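Sharing a chain and its predicted structure for anyone who wants a worked example. Both blocks are below, sequence first, tokens second.
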Amino acid sequence: MNPRTSIALFALALTGTACLRVSEERARRDLEIGRAQASFGAVAVEDGLAAIRRFEPGVLELWANAPVLRVRLTTPPESDATWSVHVRNVVTDAEVFVGEAGEEQRPLAADAPRATERRFDLAVEAGGVTHLEVRPPDADSREPFDFIALADVQEAIDRVGDVFARMNAESSARFAMFSGDITSRGSTDELLRFQNEMRALDMPIFTTLGNHELGEEDVPYHSIFGRGSQSFVYRHVRFTFLDSASATVDPLVYDWLREWIEAARNGTHLVFMHVPPREPIGLRNGAFSSRAEAAKLLRILGAGGVDGTFYGHVHSFYAFENAGIPAYISGGGGAIPERFDGIGRHFLLVRVDPETSETNVRVVRVD
């Protein structure tokens, strides 16, 4: 964590004294993600798991933030009979189906301009509802699988290609989970630049935001990447992102978290956020502003049977426990590293077994 980060967190703490819910607006924006309505139709992505990047007559473009998307497109009687749909940031073997989940679905042919994109024409039911699903063929498997966890690229975007090349070498990884600080200050140009760099990847990156995404007053992150707090299931493992970019979690998000914990009560549950509630050294301003809130969140996670927690923000690697839960800090995406720790740029390769909830975490060095 560099001096600019410490200053930013101090400013956020001061803000918190005047406004007890510094992240409330972001939590309420989460509720709007994946929904749009106009005279020519309406679209809704289940659980807000994709950002709507383009919604025009006969045209829909989505940025996926989960391996499985379920989309409902409602059109008036006079609407276009065929829509052009483009879904970006998908798992490389993703397939497209038309029909509601749980009912008979039919596969739909799709082009792949890149490994992580699908483009197709969708015949819609004019004056009705058309259901669409994008998912990989192994979405319901119970076999162990690998994913990557990382965070904190910030100003090192010019060198992020090295990180992505090393990620591609881990061919077993299905996707990456990025725990915030994608950019230096969260501007639209920076966020779009990062997505452009992602074209070199052979896997999608699902994300939450960090404190460095808060540099712009309107926080464009949501309209470009999607929700800050969300939860999805892949291969019977629940993955949950929490927006802790302001060194706190909004009360509204705590309500969602309790629901997600209950939904995962009998399965495996992994939780990701940027600023950790507590960090293992305790000598830096690298955790929640309130120790009382940190204890509250960890009690909820521990009592809820969460199986693993992954954080960023601190530009190093630490493996420890919080509330009896295995915990990992990995902030090695390229931001200024902690001095003298010898860690450098890195990410984590995580293998998880849905049946036993066991995780195996390996540090993969880039430099």
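Comments welcome. The domain at 3-29+139-365 is CATH 3.60.21.10 (Purple Acid Phosphatase; chain A, domain 2).
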